[in-house]
Amino acid sequence: MKSFANIDVKSVREAVTLLQKLHQEKKSAEIVSGGTELLQLMKDRVATPQYLINLKTIPGLNYIKEERSGFRIGALTTLTEIEEHKGVREKLLFLSQAAGEAASPQLRNAGTIGGNICQRPFCWYFRSANFPCLRKGGGICYAVAGDNRYHAILGGGPSYIVHPSDTAPALIALGARIKITGPAGEKTIPLEKFFVLPQVDYKRENILQPGEILTEVQIPHPKPGSKGFYHKVRERQAWDHAIVSVSTVVQSKGGICQDAHVVLGGVAPIPWRAAKAEAFLRGKKVDEGTARQVGEIALDGARPMKDNVYKIGMAKSLIQRALLASV
Ligand SMILES: Cc1cc2nc3c(=O)[nH]c(=O)nc-3n(C[C@H](O)[C@H](O)[C@H](O)COP(=O)(O)OP(=O)(O)OC[C@H]3O[C@@H](n4cnc5c(N)ncnc54)[C@H](O)[C@@H]3O)c2cc1C
Which of 9, 85, 165, 323 is 20 to 30 A away from residue 138, measured at CA? Predict the structure, then answer.
C-alpha cells in the first residue's frame, strides 16, 4: 500500500472544508467510512490517495430514526444495524434483507450505508492495477473483448461495469432520497438521480463533487397495500456480489396493481429502474401472464456480450418471482 496521511475529523463541516482545501491544493484525498471497500482498492494500488478523511470519528452520523414521514438513516450506520433494526424489519423488511445479503458478517459490521451506496465497481479489470481501463483513465474497457460474464447487459458503453451495491436498488424501489452536504450547503435528491451512466461520464459512478459527502438516507413509509421483495442471485452463498438482483415494491388493491417500482441490480452500471415495465403493470391484475410480460419489457433493449447472455433469462425470471410474491 502506498503511504498516506489519515485525518480523523470531528464534524461534517470540518470534513467538507478539508476536502475542499485539499482539492484546491491539488492533493488527492478520499473519504473513508468503514474502509471495507476503499482499503482493498488501496492495497491493490488502484486507489492511491495522499490523504484519507476518516468520517468514522464524526459523532452523531450513525442513527436510524423513525418519523411520521418515514425513516432517516445516518450515513455511518452499518449494514448490520440496518439489517437488525426492529422498525426497519417491521416496515421495510426487504431493505433489511438487502443489507443482510451484502458481503459477509464482518464486512457488514464495519461497512456503512454511505460507503455501500458510494462504493466503486467490482469489475475485475478495474480492480487490477495491471489493466489501465477507461475508469482509471486508460483507453479501453477490457470487458468488451475479455471475460465479461459479470458485466452489464443494460446501459453499458463505453464502460460495462455493473453497480455493486445491494442496498441501492432496494432503496430506489422504496423511493429513497439522500442528503448531500458540501461546500454549498445541504441538498436532498432522489437516490435514483445520484448515479451516472458511463455514456454521461465513464470515470465516475455518481454525481458527488469534490468536498461533497453523502450524509443521510431518507425513506418514506411505504403506501398502504404495498409489498416489497428483494432477491439476489450470486455464484456462491458465502460473501459475493449480485450477478442479478431484483427489488420490487408493488402497491395493489384486490390483486390490481396501483403503483409499482421494479429495480434491477448487477445488470447495469447504475441500479436499473425498469420504468416502462412499471408503467405497463399499473392498473393490471398481477398474475403469471402479466409478470412474464413485465419481465420481457424490463429486459427489452438488453445488449449482452459473449459471456453474459444468461443474465437476461435470470433477470426475467427473478422479476416474475418478485411480482408474484408481491401481491
Ligand atoms: C470481499 C468483499 C465483498 C463485498 N460484497 C459486497 C456485496 O455483496 N454487496 C455490496 O453491496 N457490497 C459488497 N462489498 C462492498 C463493501 O464492503 C460494502 O458495500 C460496504 O457497505 C462499504 O461501506 P464502507 O463504509 O466500508 O465503505 P468505504 O470502504 O469506507 O468507502 C467506499 C467508497 O465510498 C466512499 N464513501 C464512503 N462513505 C462515504 C460518504 N458518506 N459519502 C461519500 N462517499 C463515501 C469512499 O470514498 C469509497 O470510495 C464487498 C466488499 C468486499 C471487500
Answer: 165
